[in-house]
TrEMBL record:
The keyword Phosphoprotein does not apply. The keyword ATP-binding applies. This is DNA ligase. Keywords: ATP-binding, Cell cycle, Cell division, DNA damage, DNA recombination, DNA repair, DNA replication, Ligase, Nucleotide-binding. Belongs to the ATP-dependent DNA ligase family. One of its GO terms (molecular function) is ATP binding. Its EC number is 6.5.1.1. It comes from the Eukaryota. It catalyses: ATP + (deoxyribonucleotide)n-3'-hydroxyl + 5'-phospho-(deoxyribonucleotide)m = (deoxyribonucleotide)n+m + AMP + diphosphate. One of its GO terms (biological process) is DNA recombination. It comes from Physocladia obscura.
Amino acid sequence: SALKLIDSSDSVASWKKNDPVPYSALCKTFDEIEATTKRGISDKIFPHGFASLAKIVVTICPEYEGKELGIGDSILMKAVANATGRSISNIKSDCDKVGDLGTVAEVSKKKQMTFGVGKILTVDKVFATLKEISGISGSSSQAKKIERINSLLVNCKGSETKFLIRSLEGKLRIGLAEKTVLVAISHASIISNIECKAWSKEKLERELESGTAILKQVLEKKKLTFHPYSELPNYDIIIPALAEHGIKKLHEICKLTPGIPLKPMLAHPTKSLTEVLDRFENINFICEFKYDGERAQIHQLEDGTINIYSRNSENLSVKYPDIMQMLPDVIAPGVTSFVLDCEAVAWDIKKKCILPFQVLSTRKRKDVAVEDIQVAVCVYVFDILYLNGKSLITETLRSRKESLKKSFFEQEGKFTFAKALEASSVDEIQTFLDESVAGNCEGLMVKTMDDGSTYEPSIRSKNWLKVKKDYLTGIGDTLDLVVIGGYFGKGKRTGWYGGFLLACYDDDSETYQSICKVATGLTEENLKQFYELFEPYKIDVPPSYYQFSDVPNIRPDVWFKPVQVWEVKAADLSISPVHHAGKGLCDPSKGISLRFPRFIRVREDKGPEQATNAEQVATMYRAQNLNSASGNVLEDDF
Ligand code: ATP
């Protein structure tokens, strides 16, 4: 009965709740998704049941578990060579031509003589093995991984091989944005409800619509009291809860939980203090120093376990043993569990002052021993989201601040409440901004205090505005861009890359869109370091998910895999005849590019998919003064 599913993908009624889903059914769906460029394909994604299917599409392990599935090419090539009887060098050379190891593996497997029919892979089996592989570490881990991969590969047929390899690489690359997956999960949860078999077509459509509406609220970032995925970004918990309780009850079950990092609230850039005052006219707001360090979400569970997570939900506890050691001293009696939103900032113990971000970035990330720490940190706490078993995110910022002050003690140079001022005039805010900059901070965060001041996980909220010190000279904010190519250097830069092609990320199409070349702001030290860093990530062919103009002035000498994010400052943005960032959003056929881009720093805390997205680029373009020359089409720099 399981196999019947492959050929009955349009029939909701034939699905039976406990049927094992064959992996081939999932891969057939992936093939269809890959072949379509249409939006709104969510109904196709999980036609039969959904629990294990959804998991396999979106993630193998949440980031905070620290188990990544991004298996390196060398291991995968060895596994493909083993499973297909081809040499590694042949596989590598095919891969250089085709640009996708998954496709090479599929073709290689098809050419191979096979004996017998092999086992039928089920989604559950594949998922369990992938999860097992992600957890393998320690001695002879490479051999163990290859052995587990081979146990699947020998039984793969057709496109199963391609998708298995891509899953192992950590990315399916079928043009399926995570938000489409969320809508599909909601539909699947309704369809897989056994009662729905008795529903009329109209009733089913109504239910699908209402399920989608609930998830759409999340997606459209409306003000909500319900954000299961943002509050509890773990599909291993959300999907079984959906299966058991249905979408309408999800918010009662999937709530902020200490030990599971939530997606942090983000701020809107502003270009002037008057813009801040216009936005917050007649609204109570607070200005806080914008500390320039690393975001740190600190969780304490009821059993006393403490964990620190990055902006990216990565577990930072091993990076900051000094914070872990200090925390018990600042927690007031009676406090049993909490979640704090903070910035960890480099601190000069002798001079008792904040040090710039560059100093913090010299700290080791792994295996840090308290005795060896050269750069001390001070935690500046600006929000509390959970206290003693209760989520505080729907309370006002004023009330959260009160809870914070009652529950923690300050300790100079170790744990301090973010410096704040309830200001009302431009002059007062300007003085506070100057003070923050003089104290090695980046500027101010301005936040609503009462009305509309709930904590909005994952949302870039208009209730949090950021004012950076150089907003007057630039475009209000820096951009975080992905390095996708390099240009060989000339003159003094011979032997290294002299410039780089950068891209923003478009999360709708899951593509990287070229935005500018950058060659300034890079020191000799940087150039040397980047030349070595990108060496293992060179690729011969740009992947299909890079969007760029294939013209001599743009095509880089070397393409790179999308592995690193750089913070870049620019004079302004312009409509570009050659770059693809936000193509179609501000001009029907042209993209947007940066003028006079300048490298600022590497963003270790952001993955490529958290780079500035196409919509943000378009918003920045629209926000800039349209009377300036930047509204015109200009030649790109460099
Ligand atoms: P974005 O997340 O908006 O793309 P980003 O990660 O580059 O941008 P910034 O533009 O620097 O971040 O602004 C938000 C960051 O500022 C927060 O993620 C946090 O790390 C930091 N920050 C420092 N001080 C505060 C504060 N008082 N309140 C909130 N965030 C603060």
